[in-house]
Amino acid sequence: MKKLVKLIATVTLLAAVGMVSGAAITQLGFWVDQANAKTVGGTAIPKSYKKLAKKAVHVSKGSMYSSAKLTKVTHKAKNYKHTTFYRTKQAKVVKANKKTAVYNYIKSSNGKTKGWIWHGYVKNGKAPKAKATSKKTSAVATSSKTSTGTSSSVSSSNKISKSKLKQLSTSVDGKPSSLNNWLINPGKKGSGALTDSKGYLKPAKGTKFSSLGSGAIVGTLSNGHRMMGQTQHPSKYLEVIPGMHSNSESFTNNSGHWVAYYISGNGLNGHGTAADKHIGFKYFSGMDQGLIASFNGIWLGMNASPDSTLYNWNSKILLINKKAAQAKFY
Q1: Helix axis angle, 177-184 relative to 162-169, nearest 10°?
Q2: What are 123's strand-pairing partners?
């Protein structure tokens, strides 16, 4: 009888220990039965780790995770196509579907971007350099016609003076004419790439983005084009193509980022409060309200109609009817 009681107590104790520490032991890599491995909370269980010789690699798709347990995505590889990483470790993990997969640990040269990514997405060699922008949307000459029909002159400096910045800032209070005129006229060409490693627009070397308040910023790109955007949404920064354009033009964009064209005309049916329709484009007011906010329509007057602007989501193009954007709708 004593032996039976002792046996039951032992079994009970082992079961309790297993319930408390089984997952921890497995996660530490002491033991994993691949056939019966289960993930905790839908995450992966590392089977083994292996140190690799440091090697330059690059990625263009997939996700990077903070650990080999694949619990948290820290970066999207598509944002680092032109960043060279270094592979130093490898891990075999059992995923939620009970299949074994191999993940590599990679880190950028400055150490700021790092994580675990499926080995199939990792390519040997340094990342390709970003191609110089030669797209139609970014190749408009600085002699583009302005609203008066004459060639615009290249400004002598890309740095915005305090007085000019104050003038441009009035757009936030509903007086966008000064800002729109400044955006249409290109600045001086500078040096540096148009975008950073994530594909976001950045200012020309030696300059910086200037704040207009309420999260709105403006600046000059290395090709001389102006830009505007919302600090919290860099993926929606707009490169402004210089000059005034006709709504009868065919608008294209192969740059990968958003661009804006200012279009002339008196607006829909001559009323001056909405842009004429354009094939493939929708009215800005029809966009999801959360997305509208990410663009920060500082080109619009306080009482102007959002319908003064058209958008094509797939092409990443905004068409801004300048007259309508500055007109009072109500």
Answers
A1: 120
A2: 58
